[in-house]
Amino acid sequence: MMIVILILLGIVLILFTYLTIRFKSGKRKAELHWQHSNIQKMHNLGTVQFCQIIPLIDWYTSREALKGEAGVSYLIETDNVSILFDVGFNMKQTDPSPLINNMKQLGITMDDFDTIVISHNHLDHVGGMKWQRQRTFSLANQQIDLGEKTVYTPIPMTYPGLSPILSKNPTVISEGVTTIGTIANQDFYSGWIEEQALAINMKGKGILLIVGCGHQTLPKILMRAESLFEEPIYGIIGGLHYPVTASRIKIMGINMQKYIGICRPPWSPITIDAVKENIDLLKKRNPGVVALSAHDSCDESIAAFKNAFPAIYKEVKVGERIVIQ
Ligand SMILES: [Fe+2]
């Protein structure tokens, strides 16, 4: 019996040592990725006057018939382009998927968007583990015909019948709408992550950032936006990964998000003080809209954001439109 325990302890120790070495080297690589990003000012992005974000998948919902889950999918409509930003989790691989169910409930069809942007290749953004492993994505249990939609991905990804555009560097989607290029980070358990966000230049207001999971970290997202644009940051909507006191995904009672995806070592999980430091960074930009996704942040972190931005904070709830004009 003692030998078995010693062998198990040895395996855990070897695994932990391997993960620690990989984490440290990944962090160094991510820093090099950041330093070598070839970011040029965007002078002619143009502007949009109108932007509407309809969360199709997120943790909270605005009514019972809509399904919430620990994933992200937002329909983003502007003057000249409609984007499906991420495609949800479909954790139980149900048919219809929560995304398809919610689209039907909200009267949204495949014709309501012409572009798909994937923030990063994680299961809660590409429709499940099966698709993440294959470096693809799916809105439903099976991959459906997406016609001639334009797809932007942060790493090379595929989709039957389509040729996704790799948007590692900032890539203009339409007048006033662009990706901000990928920012890399290393997670202790899940490994290397390259994530992109969207930026929408709202006329007379500034840059609205739409973020999937926030593995890039808020400070780097803000720095990237300020390197790219002359306009001030107007706001930020989406996931920023602040699971301080709880996680939306629990396995055997363990708060999974508190450890997986935080891009910090497990002995140093994110604290409410770290969240407040990020809030202070955002406050310095004097934003006009802030909306935090609950899919990867706990209620305490959301409350801290609401307290910090009482006049401008918007809820992210499936079916509840956030309109900016
Ligand atoms: Fe996420």
What do these coordinates show?
- The protein has 325 residues and is α/β, with parallel strands linked by helices.
- It has one domain (45-324): Metallo-beta-lactamase, Chain A, CATH 3.60.15.
- Helix content is 27%, strand content 22%.
- It has 8 helices and 17 strands.
- The protein has helices spanning 2-35, 98-105, 123-126, 129-133, 218-228, 256-259, 272-283, 299-308; strands spanning 51-57, 73-78, 82-85, 115-117, 150-153, 165-166, 172-174, 177-179, 183-187, 191-195, 198-202, 206-211, 233-238, 250-251, 254-255, 289-292, 322-324.
- The strands form 4 sheets. It has a 7-stranded mixed β-sheet with strand order 6-5-4-3-2-1-17. It has a 6-stranded mixed β-sheet with strand order 7-8-11-12-13-16, with helices on one face.
- Helix 7 runs parallel beside helix 8 (299-308).
- It is globular and about 70 Å long.
- The termini are far apart.
- The structure holds fe (ii) ion.
- Fe (ii) ion binds at residues 72, 122, 124-125, 213, 239, 295-296.
Task: Briefly summarize what is shown.
The chain has eight helices and 17 strands.
What share of residues are in beta strands? 15-25%
Strand elements, count: 17
CATH superfamily caption: Ribonuclease Z/Hydroxyacylglutathione hydrolase-like
Shape: globular
Chain-averaged pLDDT? 95
Strand order, largest beta sheet: 6-5-4-3-2-1-17
Largest sheet: 7 strands, mixed
The CATH class name reads Alpha Beta
Query: How far is the N terminus from the C terminus?
Result: 68 Å
Small molecules bound: fe (ii) ion
Q: SS-based structural class?
A: alpha/beta
Treating each run of at least 4 consecutive H or I residues as one helix, how many helices? 8
* CATH T-level fold name: Metallo-beta-lactamase, Chain A
From the 3D coordinates, which CATH architecture would you assign? Answer: 4-Layer Sandwich
Give unreliable regions as ranges. none
Give the number of domains: 1
| H/E topology pattern | HEEEHEHHEEEEEEEEHEEEHHEHE
Radius of gyration: 19 Å
**How helical, in percent, are the residues?**
25-40%
